[in-house]
Amino acid sequence: MLNDFEKVLKEAKMPPKKKLIKNGTVKINVVETTPVVWEGRLLRFEWLRNFGWGGSGQKATNANMREKGCYHFVDHLTEKEVGAEFAFDHAFGCCYNDEGTMYAHGTRGGGGGNYLDTFYSKDLVNWESKEAICFPEDIMLFNTSVCKDDEGYVMAIEIGGKNEAVGVPFTIVFAKSKNLVDWELLDMMEYSYTRDRYSACPVIRYYGGQYYMIYLEGAPCHRWIPYIVRSKDLINWELGVTNPIMYPSDEDKILVNHENFTDFEKEYINNAVDCNNSDIDLCEFEGRTYIVYSWGNQFGKEFLATAEYDGSEEEFLKSFFAD
Q1: Residue 191 confidence (pLDDT) above 80
Q2: 3-state DSSP of 23-75
Q3: Cα Rg of the chain (Å, integer)
Q4: Distance from C-alpha of 195 to C-alpha of 177, rounded to nearest angstrom
Q5: Phi-psi region of 242 (alpha: psi -120 to 50; beta: other; left: phi over 0)
Q6: Contact at 8 Å (CB) between 109 and 90?
Q7: 217 with 225: CB under 8 angstroms?
Q8: What percent of the chain stands above pLDDT 70?
Q9: I want to staple 295 with a disulfide (CB 3.0 to 4.6 A). Which of 170, 252, 267, 289 is the partner?
């Protein structure tokens, strides 16, 4: 449930703050990624989709011509692969680096399954795995995100399906862990956000006793826009005063590296409908906050773009609230 937002709006004092700066597009049909720092380098965890995902975009650009999806890492600056591909036949993943061990979590199957698995590695080449959570058969699993809190770790999980915990698809539920491998699902009816409207694509962080969560709101007239909320207990939520995080804009179509795109792909990007900024994820690196997000038409034409905030991750998340 949301706290009294109207009262906050009436009383809040919000002086001008730093702005998020969009860099532009880096890839076609690779979205739902996670930036992460590994051995002093900024990497990006990616889900390489099977051909069935992102239909129109995949066919137009011949992207990800593979039978089964999998995960891998690339250097955020050079776009070169780091380590090995892994977790074949998994989708909608996220990752978390904990003291030199990389953990990845994702949905078993091509997407929308009900099993969540954990993978872990100390070198990004050799991976071990374990089943993390088995959900009821009438639940479908999508995007996930992990953060560390005062007691261990918390995972935000986007669910769909016909289970009563879903409400209006999609809904976000939560799990906790002491070691990033063994997970306990919290009561989905009590710990959730939110069953009364579309809420998807979570990214969760924890600072100063508060969970900060960016998620996707379904707006009228075929629009999707990221919002931010925070909570002390994963039950009661406070909406950020200066939402949304960002809007679809012409800056989404800037090409970060022109040489990485063919003439056809450049035209494809330039002519694409942009009514969506979704699937945000972020991390702090060398005093700046690096952000990845998807833009496109929500009908298969999807693009990966990046943005930056000149400040810490904590400062960025707190900048949307009055205190």
Answers
A1: yes
A2: EEEEEECCCCCEEEEECCEEEEEEEECCCCCCHHHHHHHCCCCCCCCEEEEEE
A3: 19
A4: 24
A5: alpha
A6: yes
A7: yes
A8: 95
A9: 252
Q: What is the pLDDT of residue 1?
A: 65
Residue 65 contacts residue 52 (beta carbons within 8 Å): no
Instruction: Report which DSSP code applies to 2.
Output: B
Q: How many residues does the chain have?
A: 323
Rounded to whole angstroms, how far apart are CA atoms 68 and 214?
29
- C-alpha span between 315 and 304 (Å, rounded): 24
Count how many Cα atoms sit within 13 Å of the Cα of residue 76 in the half-sphere of its side chain.
24
Token duo for residue 121: 């590695």
**pLDDT 10s digits, 160-186:** 999 999 999 999 999 999 999 999 999
CA distance 5 to 36: 33
Six token digits for residue 78:
């050079």
pLDDT on residue 125: 98
Asked if 116 and 144 count as a contact pair (C-beta separation under 8 A), the reply is yes
